[in-house]
């Protein structure tokens, strides 16, 4: 899908594309039911009662319903330990009625989040959070991508942004956002620079970027004065009050294209999650469809 030009064409809005992905996912889910008599099922695990996390889980469950996907909700108390959480996730991994597993993150601080992620079976890692998923993505092998990075790539595609040969700066190095989005851009032949909290002279580095992905987790962190005129800016942050990691008003006066918050990257994250859930069900039940992100994986061998 290519988004046509509009008076606000410099805004890369994700809502329309996400809706298109959800419609096609619903069609595939219905076709799977027709072939197998079974609906795709996403199990969502929430530990504790963080209001923001509870809201995200509710949104994902609502989108599941819209797409014809069954949603199994596992809510564990905040005091749940790592061992108990790992056991619950392992049980879901072994359950043939569950095709995808989402552990809502972040989890409470006393839990080993990485251990919990690794309890998800690779075939059900539809959120793309395990080391297996990161490895398959980096090496261009079949698997699931992290949902926000995958959504960012699809959004760039829809707006005709080709990263080939461009200098992309990723601000953030988390294993489920910053690192994987850099790998996906590298797969599209971008020259990628990772920046983080210890980067020296960050504004100067950002100022040389053709494409900036802000995933630092700090509100209004990226300033308009840092940006190269005409740069493409993707804001992957979200903070209370609908604020992202980029100073939106200042960036809009400089950037060639940028994503709004909300309505940019956020809707794409959920859409990719449900698309990958349907694909997981197809692969587990038979009749897998083509991976829409396969074209973005690295060539082998590397050149």
Structure keywords:
single chain, 303 residues, alpha/beta, five-stranded parallel sheet, 10 helices, 8 strands, 13% strand, globular
What does this structure look like?
With 303 residues, the chain is α/β, with parallel strands linked by helices. The protein contains ten helices and eight strands. Strands 5-4-6-7-8 form a five-stranded parallel sheet. A three-stranded parallel sheet has the order 2-1-3, with helices on both faces. Strand 7 (232-235), helix 9 (248-252) and strand 8 form a beta-alpha-beta unit. The longest helix is centred in the N-terminal third of the chain and has 22 residues, at 15-36. It is globular. The chain starts with 14 loop residues before the first helix and ends in an 18-residue tail after the last helix. Residues 295-301 have low confidence and may be disordered. Belongs to the tetrahydrofolate dehydrogenase/cyclohydrolase family. Residues 14-127 form the Tetrahydrofolate dehydrogenase/cyclohydrolase catalytic domain. It catalyses: (6R)-5,10-methylene-5,6,7,8-tetrahydrofolate + NADP(+) = (6R)-5,10-methenyltetrahydrofolate + NADPH; (6R)-5,10-methenyltetrahydrofolate + H2O = (6R)-10-formyltetrahydrofolate + H(+). It comes from Micromonospora zhanjiangensis. NADP(+) binds at residues 172-174.
Fold topology:
Layout: H1 15-36, E1 41-47, H2 51-66, E2 70-76, H3 82-94, E3 100-103, H4 113-118, H5 131-138, H6 147-158, E4 167-171, H7 178-187, E5 191-195, H8 202-207, E6 211-214, E7 232-235, H9 248-252, E8 257-258, H10 265-285
Parallel strand pairs: 1-2, 1-3, 4-5, 4-6, 6-7, 7-8
Helix pairs in contact: 1-10, 6-7, 6-10
